[in-house]
Amino acid sequence: MTRSAELFDRAKGVLPGGVNSPVRAFRAVGGTPFFVARAQGARLTDVDGRTYLDYVGSWGPLVLGHAHPAVMDAIRAAVERGWSYGAPCEAEVDLAELVRQRMPSVEMVRFVNSGTEATMAAVRLARAATKRDVILKFEGCYHGHADAFLVKAGSGVATLGLPDSPGVPSALAALTVTVPFNGAAAVREVFRQRGHEIAAVIVEPYVGNAGFIPPDPDFHPVLRSLCDRAGALLIFDEVMTGFRVASGGAQERLGVRPDLTTLGKIIGGGMPVGAYGGRADLMRMIAPEGPVYQAGTLSGNPVAMAAGLATLHAAAGPGFYEALEQRTARLVAGIVDAARRHAVPLTAGHAGSLWGVYFTAGPVRDFAQAKRSDTALFARWHRAALARGIFLAPSAFEAGFVSSAHTDADITETITHLDAALAEAVAR
Questions:
Q1: Is the overall model pTM greater than 0.90, yes or no?
Q2: Which residue in the list 142, 206, 321, 358 is annotated as catalytic?
Q3: Cβ atoms of residues 273 and 111 within 8 Å
Q4: Which of 89, 234, 246, 376 keeps 20 to 30 A from 171, CA to CA?
């Protein structure tokens, strides 16, 4: 028995499913999850000494790769000054100003400890500002595990085949309306019928929690227009896309300005963090300046702020995002070419360094079409890739990530191994 298998057996006795986040259990792809001993650059090494080229990147935060020297130095310096104050620190202000500089729609920001906290607070603020209760979201989009969002959600909910979650009151679920992503006509119809009830539309601007689904060119402009007309707020959930698909996030890439934005992952450089922000008139409603209450013992943690600052500064270098996109495009093209040669139906795409594939002919414009993907083939491909040292997200319904630590040689190696893994998966 491997050391990872031993640890997983122990973990199952004390952790539900042996993990602290469901998709890590490898239920959708089979096999035993490996336990990480250390990580550096683009690679993970497990407790059995096996090394993997990593395209999970801690599920998105590590745009610079693992243990980047600048981030390590920032974390070390912050820890030496103390790692939790319960009082304000300068790094909170510095990071808030940097976020506002990169995302002009975020005129004010509040730091929290996770993406789920950020989306919960943004929705509470939207309801308070509009004096309405209904939230419109999109099938397959995942905005954290708060009750209001576990209705036709993506990520682990989709991976495990759980369309909703027990424990979510039906009365609360009834306040969440879902329509297909890219379904502009369906959104128009909901607004026609219930526009006066809708507090906010919340959307992943590029879906990354049901695999990767890009928006139609007119989709977000339609959302912006409908929200403006009805007096609802538009919330961009950029926990995944923020500082990932462009320097200014998806809103810069799409040219659409939301009222509120939620952030996480990259802004903490791999440390636990989240944030929500937007129009100053809305954010001034947050306590202590306004009546909308939200608080957090560790919010604005000095170590997380330092890691986020170091990450965003390092990502500001000339050509940073262009180089990431070029490598990601080459990786996706290599997978598409392998699928063509092996006669496997496949749809693939990317935005910046966010990417994904579906084993279906496509097109994939919404979650219903994503679910046509051959998940059994994906599971075989995942296992064959892992055996060759390539770590992909253990789910057909999760996006992948390229970091600046991935070299051209790494991309070439990955394409070669994924080609061989697909040949093996098809032959089985």
A1: yes
A2: 142
A3: yes
A4: 234
